[in-house]
Amino acid sequence: MMTAFRWAATVLAGLATLVGAVGVVLHYSTSSARLPVLAASAASYMMIGSVLGAVVFALLRYRVATAVALLIVVAAVWIQAPRYVGESAGGGGDVLTVMQANVLFGEADPATVVSEVEERQVDMLTVSELTPEAVEAYAREGLDRMLPYHFVAPEPGAGGTGIWSRFPLSDEVEYDGFVMNQVSATADVPGTGPVAVYAFHPVPPVYDTKVWADELSRLHEILESAPPSAPVVAGADFNATYDHAQYRAMLTGRLRDTAEQVGAGFLFTYPTDKRIPPLVGIDHILVGGGRATSVETVTLPGSDHRAVVAQIELDRPPR
Prior knowledge:
Layout: H1 4-28, H2 34-40, H3 43-59, H4 63-80, H5 82-85, E1 92-102, H6 110-119, E2 124-128, H7 132-141, H8 143-146, E3 149-153, E4 161-165, E5 169-174, E6 183-189, E7 193-200, H9 209-224, E8 232-237, H10 245-248, E9 256-257, H11 258-261, E10 283-288, E11 290-299, E12 306-315
Parallel strand pairs: 1-2, 7-8
Antiparallel strand pairs: 1-12, 2-4, 3-4, 5-6, 6-7, 8-10, 9-10, 11-12
Helix pairs in contact: 1-3, 1-4, 3-4, 6-7
Keywords: Endonuclease, Hydrolase, Membrane, Nuclease, Transmembrane, Transmembrane helix
Pfam families: Exo_endo_phos (PF03372)
Protein name: Endonuclease/exonuclease/phosphatase family protein
């Protein structure tokens, strides 16, 4: 007869394995229903359950159950491994430093934002939740001296978005039909030529998961329509993690996530205004026609997001 301890351990292992399996399923789910979309944010954590299940089943000598749990572990490793492996070297062209910052209704400390730009020698800055007051504060702190070209669409609250650049900007576009502002411009980078720069901020899934999925899909279409001859850089609070299939769909063409390119693993950016460390990575920098050589996060006092800073080596332009 099974002892109470053995029974409890078996139930625990079974539940842990089930949770891990659900995490794998959520990673591949394309549903825009509220529950699976929100739960997918925790899919990576859920997959860890399969490891616990495999260990406990092995200790209890349940061979079949151990094999099932190990299959789920293998699936989880297969899913997460690209985040740590990175990609082979490429590029060979000019190097750009790009920073993406969600400044929480413009309340991130402007002196810190500008000092990070200066210290890291940022060439392009994309900003989410940009307010008119924040634009003025950055100017007072000297941002326009370091990045003299900008295209901004500020708004009170969370809707504003902007681009600052060390290089001249042209072809500025603000895209219609989104809840928050989405903008792009073309930077003229000496030695490289035109570089398409995008600053996006789709709605969070807590707003409406169907709207969220639709906006991600439309933003993907915008990125795919960029001129194939020009490098592409996109900075955004995508309100989506690597475990959201709707986000990974953006990476099926020429675009790549810079954190995945360098094998940065879990790059947590949100939330930073709690007593616990950030739990998810929803802020990303994407690149097409180049490869990131380093990616890191930066704390911005006053914001609930960490900024992301990537150094990108663009592909050498054709002669």
